[in-house]
Specification:
By secondary structure, the chain is of the alpha+beta class. Helix content is 20%, strand content 27%. The protein has helices at 3-9, 16-24; strands at 28-30, 33-34, 46-51, 54-60, 76-78. A hairpin with a 2-residue loop joins strand 1 and strand 2. Helix 1 (3-9) packs across helix 2 (16-24). The protein is globular.
Length: 79
């Protein structure tokens, strides 16, 4: 699954276009490397999101196409 779609489905970022823009601006890194929106997310990847001075790091636990809002946080775990 594409990185921008994963960020939207897991509800780390609210909209896919915003997730794509964040990737283009270099605010999203996977496994320590700045990644494009087209990066293919795999289980075990560590995603770091930079919002201003706040950095959120999560590890990918599952990659699912459709998830209910209540189950979205089960797709990742904090690092």
């Amino acid at each position: 699954m594409r990185l921008d779609k994963y960020l939207k489905v897991s509800r780390l970022i609210k909209r896919r276009t915003v997730a794509s823009e964040a990737c283009a601006a270099g605010k999203v890194s996977v496994n320590g490397k700045v990644s494009k929106a087209s990066y293919d997310v795999k289980i075990g990847d560590v995603i770091a999101l930079t919002f201003g001075e706040k950095v959120i790091k999560v590890q990918v636990v599952s990659v699912l196409e459709h998830v209910r809002k209540e189950d979205a946080d089960a797709m990742y775990k904090p690092v």
